[in-house]
Model the fold of this input.
Amino acid sequence: MIPVVWSDDVLRHDPRDEIWVGVRTDGTEVPRRATVIRAALAAAGHPEVPTTEHPDDVLLEVHEAGLVDWLRTAWDAWQDGPYGTLVGSDRVVPYVFPTPLMTSGMPWRYPAATHARAGVWCYDTMTVVGPGTWEAARAAVDAGLTAVDLVLAGRHSVYALTRPPGHHAAPAGFGGSCYLNTAAVAAQAFARAGRRVAVLDVDAHHGNGTQAVFWDRADVLYASVHVDPGAGWFPHVLGYGDERGAGAGAGSTVNVPLPPGTDDDGWLRGVRLLVEAALRFDAEAVVLSLGLDAAAADPESPLLVSRDGYARAGALVGALDLPTVVVQEGGYDLASVGDLTVAALSAF
Ligand code: SP5
Ligand code: ZN
Done:
């Protein structure tokens, strides 16, 4: 039985709402996701191991120090300002985005105002920071690194039950309900140990953040199956089939975009392409970004994968028979996400 790496701290992040197309909607990346997955795995007999704390060194090989420092301090800064009392805002939400459209190639200054700083690092309005966001995201990274430790010490495969998810978090920018990229940090830890590592991403959405981290790297494969961004789905501007990496990393990025409505057969053909890419790459270790949001019942994607589909995907990746760290990404249907995780890990 695959061990489950757990930290109570992953429950401390609660976005409550997300600002989507200008409207405050119910957040779907809720703490209860982790609670129901944990209960389902315990009931299925998976042993739990505690998360151990790790220093920032591997994290800082994935993310710029400025992003990490801002995430660490953003909530305290927000509380020091008048945002709670005067403005009535209980979450850090960006409003100005100093993208190149604004700065136009000119030298620009880091904003003095706390409420202007958020948009330097966050690229959407859905990914809010509140009390406990930093602690949860950092605990998720520790859980991923704990799982890598266990695999490097000889365990075949280990699952890190992480939230918030991470695969949309890029070197210097975060969004898509993600803050720190746990899967990328785990892959970097394998790479540091001299292993050629394949990140296989079966979340319903393209992992633009992980792709960005390893875009020009020859030692890490990033391969993803996801709903076609060209059909109007997050992350909208990345995840097309012709994105293959650059420089030394040319050919070590693989994208399989699928039309909305794709069910088990089409999705599993995509998963098989990822597995074949890992074989061609001569991968020595795998990081599986396990999002359960491709499921038919999931509110955040139009893919129609069944429980059996997730089981067969687990079996396909398991058949690689490589040391594997499984990292939890998306999956938002609270009634089924635990059972889907059990299905994938059991068949693995
Ligand atoms: C890790 C992950 O699965 N991130 C997915 C983020 C995609 N969200 C983009 C669209 C959000 C629209 N949500 C509308 C539902 C009302 N809350
Ligand atoms: Zn997703």
Notes: The longest helix spans residues 133-152. The first strand starts at residue 4 and ends at 6.
